Amino acid sequence: MPENKKNLIEPNDIEKFKELLRTRLSESGWKEEMKAVCRDIIREKGVENVTIDSLVKEMTPKGRELVPDSVKRELLQRIRSHLDPMSA
């Protein structure tokens, strides 16, 4: 393989990035915010009117929006450093 080819991210590395993301989201309070969003949706629509699919559909954009910028930046920097160690 030519030296200028970037290494692909291995499955083990992906798991490490996922674990970092889970940890940072938990530390930032994101998980608690998402629980509150879920409760609010159920309270607003009524438990009998909410399905898992509709809940996920409504929560996904809000969840992405609530991820702290610092978490996004850190994860992106870690991925860049992994792909190009010379840039670190």
Explain what this protein looks like in three dimensions.
The protein starts with 10 loop residues before the first helix and ends in a 5-residue tail after the last helix. It has helices at residues 11-28, 30-45, 52-66, 69-83. It has 88 residues and is an all-alpha fold. Helix 2 packs across helix 3. It comes from Nephila pilipes (Giant wood spider). This is Transcription and mRNA export factor ENY2. It holds the Pfam family EnY2.
Beta-strand content estimate: under 5%
Q: Return Rg in Å.
A: 18 Å
**How widely separated are the two ends?**
22 Å
Mean pLDDT across every amino acid position? 89
Order of helices and strands: HHHH
Task: Name the helicity range.
Answer: over 70%
Unreliably modeled segments: 1-5
- Based on secondary structure, the structural category is mainly alpha
* Biggest beta sheet summary: none
Number of E-type strands: 0
What is the approximate shape? elongated
Secondary structure elements and pairings:
Blueprint: H1 11-28, H2 30-45, H3 52-66, H4 69-83
Helix pairs in contact: 1-4, 2-3
Distinctive features:
88 residues, mainly alpha
Summarize this entry quickly.
The protein has helices at 11-28, 30-45, 52-66, 69-83. With 88 residues, it is mainly alpha-helical.
